[in-house]
Predict the 3D structure of the following.
Amino acid sequence: MARKPAAQTVHPAAIIEAAATVFRRKGYHGATMAEIAAAVNLTAGSLYHHFPSKQDLLVAVLATGLERITREVRAAVEAEDTSAAETLRRIAAIHIRSQIDNANIAAAVIFEGRALLDVPDVREQFVAQRDALEALYRQVIERGIAAGEFRPVDVGVFVKALFGALNWVSVWYRPDGRLSGEEIAREIADTFLAALRCPLEQTSLGE
């Protein structure tokens, strides 16, 4: 099939998904713009028309993944009808569903973000986006501690541990596996909520 010339366009979202797929298969440093262009049936010139460099493509992939999940998590965190524990359950489910539904982009966020760490302006953008998502989780934990739902913990360490568990699902999840995404989210939320329970609550639950 002949590739599309620059005059013909492909939606940027399709290019971003194709780039994420190639990055997952080859790694950022191993991927080429020619391979990404071929994945969406574009000429190399047309791809450069949309994204001037492979770095620009990686930035777009990471921004897409982080913006999507941050938007959904923020909506859940800002809802006023739930306890901190229920909010944590909701955002864990949102996080894992996003990881599963957008596995290639999720993998790029986990593994390829470090390729930008030597580029100051780009690094700052990526870190700011990542920190904005983490801040929403911190907000939930801090709210639960303040309300007496959760025992005091080092919130920064706790959130990073939770992130590690949630993010890694995209690496090992299989659609034909033993558990669904919803069941995995429930198991992870249960595990971390158990660690957050106040000692008196844990005692009463064990009686």
User: Anything to note?
Assistant: Residues 202-207 have pLDDT under 50 and may be disordered.
